[in-house]
Design brief:
Length: 675
């Protein structure tokens, strides 16, 4: 057994850095927390190349005294914890004293700081955790930290880093979270010399929300304010049910000013939206919880993003009732904003916004006389003006048949359906004869044939049968005892349920086919087999939208794959994405929703192989191009979907859901107590 020994200090620092510093965003988060704890009122974050080569964080806080500058980079050195009793009630964001030591161990660090009351500041440089230079320097009050060449001495960590766009998006997300946590502080973020965020710092959460999340989401938010037991208060904003998003990336929870990830708070938020939001949509929120410092334990995770509550039920109830109260207070029917009715041509009245310069003298006199008369709200209506009688009854043709009868079934004429029905026992006199003599005129299908001539054999083209699989295949190995294959039972499309499920009858069985899932699989197989080279359309007006930082990073990280599928995505600045072209079957109004769904699939896939990413993109494309549930489709489309399922080509959708369920006649009779 090897001897037990104490690790070298540098190795110990690298191990600690692996827990605290995962990527450039971790560095920015720790430095921002130090700036907030120092009482800064303005913080500037600047990065280059995603933060891998350059990070600078400047604040106007209290600064570090000259005697404590070098001590701040030692492990477990902190000014925020004195005794063990302080750990039971932590009111600062940082308290472990490991952040600066861990950052300095894996990078080259420069610090310039001046404390309040000192005439000169201190400039200190470190490399790999070792001090390489110190000198006095003139600088404003506060601290400036510069981190260069992150992970330069740990190449094993470098291979896990993503593209600069993805790492920069993660840094941007960290700055956004701190800006929402502290609306009283002005945050500025610059990436590669471009300013992408600036919050006013006036102390109003709504202003910070507007600057961080954008105008559209900010206007779709409701103010939330409530309190619970044990001095728990909840304040912030939650989205209207109609403004819910397709993912949980817009849910921000803060406990005593600290951003956290909590399934408890997530469940309380979504429970308050029960039966008020669309299926598959998630509410957005920015909620600040304030509780007793000894009522929450923040020392349970190295990144300090998870906490434990002493009384989880009280926290759950406080969030649930606060959000539910805000939703109920806003529960009123939407207001309809109708435009003012247009005046008929030649009307003599003049509105306040109408100018008199365009009127003749005679029109001006008549207008003044009209305005001087008292208003009457029951003018004599012209006899020819009867607008309400136009759409009361459907317009009928000369024969009395309505032109638009909305009560007519989906399958209009019985003739095509009859040709697809399951064949009954055929009598020779009931089978129509194929006309042997070529005649220029044919009998239309709507005219009933009185006496069709009998034939010796039925016409097989009128029966839809399941295609045989083994018939076209040449048998590579001839079997000595070939067994006759049974004839496949014919099937018939009997109709459609809820404009979603196709009902197919086959012998003693009934099949319910999900037309969307089946068509989605058909598209997926077709696209995958063809390699998918889409037809693209250039958008007359490019689509610009602001996704969540994680979605933003996923889209820009896979721009090459998206280009292959017809989407041209570019960085628009400020966390926004601009789309200039899309596939021909995607409407311009669905571009944002499609790309957000693609980004969600890319985030949830967690795949590194190109084939896996490609399959996820193909599945999303197939879903968007498939027919939808609730959509009206003709008999030909339904039969095409049924053909793919009944032939065995389609069994599951690309996401693994079954496309059809089978119900036998015996099972159905058991439900009616007939068996």
């Amino acid at each position: 057994m090897p001897h037990i020994q104490v690790l070298d200090s540098h190795v110990a620092d690298l191990i600690a850095a692996g827990e605290v510093v995962e990527r450039p965003a971790s560095v920015v988060k720790e430095l921002l927390e130090n700036a907030i704890d120092a009482g800064a009122r303005a913080v500037t974050v600047e990065i280059q190349h995603g933060g891998m080569s350059y990070i600078r964080v400047t604040d106007n806080g209290c600064g570090i005294p000259p005697a404590d500058v070098e001590t701040a980079f030692l492990r477990h050195a902190t000014s925020k914890v004195r005794t063990e009793h302080d750990l039971a009630a932590i009111g600062t964001l940082g308290f472990r004293g490991e952040a600066l030591a861990a950052i300095a161990a894996v990078s080259r660090v420069e610090i310039l700081t001046r404390a309040d009351g000192n005439d000169l500041g201190v400039a200190l440089t470190l490399e790999g955790g070792v001090v390489t230079g110190r000198e006095d320097a003139g600088c404003p009050q506060g601290t400036t930290m510069v981190v260069r060449d992150l992970f330069y001495n740990t190449p094993a960590r470098l291979k896990f880093m993503k593209k600069d766009t993805a790492e920069g998006a993660a840094v941007f997300a960290a700055v956004q979270r701190e800006a929402l946590a502290r609306p009283e502080i002005s945050f500025k973020f610059l990436r590669d010399g471009k300013q992408e965020l600036l919050t006013p710092g006036g102390g109003k959460l709504q202003s910070a929300l507007y600057a961080v999340l954008g105008r559209e989401l900010a206007l779709g938010m409701l103010p939330v304010k409530g309190s619970g037991e044990d001095a728990v208060t909840v304040e912030g904003f939650a989205s209207l049910p109609a403004c819910c998003r397709g993912s949980r990336n817009y849910q921000f929870f803060f406990v005593n000013g600290r951003f956290i990830k909590s399934r408890l708070l997530m469940a309380a938020l979504e429970q308050s939206y029960q039966n008020q939001r669309m299926v598959g949509k998630f509410p957005a929120c920015v909620l600040h919880l304030t509780t007793r410092l000894n009522g929450v334990d923040v020392n349970v995770h190295p990144a300090k993003t998870e906490v434990k509550f002493v009384s989880e039920k009280k926290i759950f109830d406080a969030v649930y009732h606060a959000v539910l109260g805000a939703l109920e207070a806003n529960a009123k029917p939407p207001q309809a904003h109708l435009d003012a009715p247009k005046k008929p041509a030649g009307h003599d009245t003049v509105t306040p916004n109408q100018t008199f310069l365009n009127l003749s003298s005679e029109e001006y006199r008549r207008a003044v006389q009209t305005r001087s008369q008292p208003k009457t709200w029951a003018p004599a209506r012209p006899k020819t003006e009867v607008p309400r009688q136009e759409t009361v009854r459907p317009v009928r043709q000369a024969g009395g048949v309505p032109l638009h009868d909305f009560a007519r079934p989906t399958f209009p004429t019985p003739a095509p359906v009859k040709s697809r029905q399951e064949p009954e026992p055929v009598k020779e006199k009931d089978v129509p004869t194929a006309v042997p003599t070529p005649e220029p005129e044919t009998v239309p299908t709507s005219v009933a044939v009185a006496e069709p001539e009998p034939v010796a054999e039925p016409v097989p083209a009128t029966v839809k049968t399941k295609p045989q699989i083994t018939q076209p295949e040449p048998a590579p190995q001839p079997e000595p005892e070939p067994e006759p294959q049974p004839e496949p039972e014919p099937w018939t499309v009997r109709g459609e349920l809820f404009q979603t499920y196709v009902l197919v009858e086959q012998g003693e069985k009934a099949f319910f086919i999900d037309k969307h899932a089946a068509h989605e699989r058909m598209n997926f197989d077709k696209l995958k087999a063809a390699g998918y080279t889409p037809m693209v359309q250039l958008l007359l007006t490019p689509v610009v939208f602001t996704p969540a930082p994680e979605e933003y990073a996923a889209l820009l990280e896979h721009t090459d794959e998206l280009e292959r599928f017809g989407f041209s995505c570019e960085d628009f600045g400020g966390g926004a994405v601009v789309v200039r072209q899309c596939p021909d079957y995607v409407d311009a109004g669905e571009v944002e929703a499609t790309l957000l769904e693609l980004a969600g699939n890319l985030l949830s896939a967690r795949r590194t192989d190109p084939d896996g990413v490609r399959d996820h993109l193909l599945a999303t494309m197939a879903c968007k191009a498939a027919i939808k549930g609730g959509q009206k489709n003709g008999p030909a489309e339904l039969e095409r979907v049924a053909e793919a399922v009944m032939s065995g080509k389609v069994k599951y959708c690309p996401h693994g859901r079954p496309v059809a369920i089978e119900l036998t006649r015996n099972q159905l009779e058991k439900l009616f107590k007939r068996a």
